[in-house]
Amino acid sequence: MSPSAITELEQHEQAVSAALSNGVHRTNWHTSLTYGSTSKNSLKRTQFLFDRNLHKSYSVVKGGKGNYLYLSDGRRIFDATSGAAVSCLGYGNQRAINAVSAQMKTGIPYLASTFWGSEIVEELCQELISGTEGKMARVYLTGSGSEAMEATIKLARQFFYENDKKTSRVNFIAREGSYHGNTIGALGISGNVARRAPYEPFLMTNVHQVSACNAYRQRLGGESDASFVRRKAAELEA
Questions:
Q1: How far is residue 8's CA from residue 29's CA, in Å, rounded to a whole number?
Q2: Can you list the residues of the chain whose pLDDT is less than 70?
Q3: Which of 34, 61, 107, 168 could make a disulfide contact with 25, Cβ separation 3.0–4.6 Å?
Q4: Do 112 and 121 meet the contact criterion of CB atoms below 8 Å apart?
């Protein structure tokens, strides 16, 4: 749940009113262009799901194809934000549907990697490694970005721990304003002040922030790419 989910009711109602008046519907606070009229009756608050926002009403999606989502009230939405900004396969991708369906038909939708190996998993890892032109040698699969960050934190620690049980390498460096995930460890690495605020008492204290790397806003007058990179590198090493 968003930290501000319980307190942003007024902002939400204002956003809904604006959306109804201008034809733009805000889905999970990402703006997407909608086709067709919008009415408050088409927005629904969840009854059983402990949702991200307890005050927000959501349009109900019935299907999707390509870049478009189709709602229960007949409207069509062009999703310009790729879901939560990280989806790239498109909706109703037949190739993905066929691959998932073929694997389900094997009777093995899931295997505990503690005990078993899988040829299809090896094939996936090999494909991912091939895409790096040999820069990767192994793949650790996770179910989400937050889980990947948690695994990265542990892996970084374990690397030094396995070489020296008394290692003092315990600090992490992250960017100001960064977002690395929704779990406690990932949130501890993140630099987004608003998201961190409610949980500060039990976030990691061994994380150090450096400024974000934004050449558009931070480059000095006449500064070259190389000079900008050197300046950022110096801040990282300071």
A1: 12
A2: 1-42
A3: 34
A4: no
- Work out whether strand 58-59 and strand 43-44 pair parallel, antiparallel, or are unpaired: antiparallel
What is the C-alpha separation between 38 and 25, in angstroms, rounded?
A: 8
> For residue 55, how far is the Cα from the chain centroid?
22
Selection from 64, 22, 25 nearest residue 42 by Cα: 25
Pair of tokens at residue 52 = 């991200």
Contacts 24+ apart (CB under 8 A), 211-218: 211/175, 211/176, 211/235, 212/175, 212/176, 212/177, 212/178, 213/175
User: Which of 180, 223, 224 lies closest to 203 in space, CA to CA?
Assistant: 180
d(CA 184, CA 130): 33
| Closest to 184 in 3D by CA, of 210, 150, 156, 151 | 150
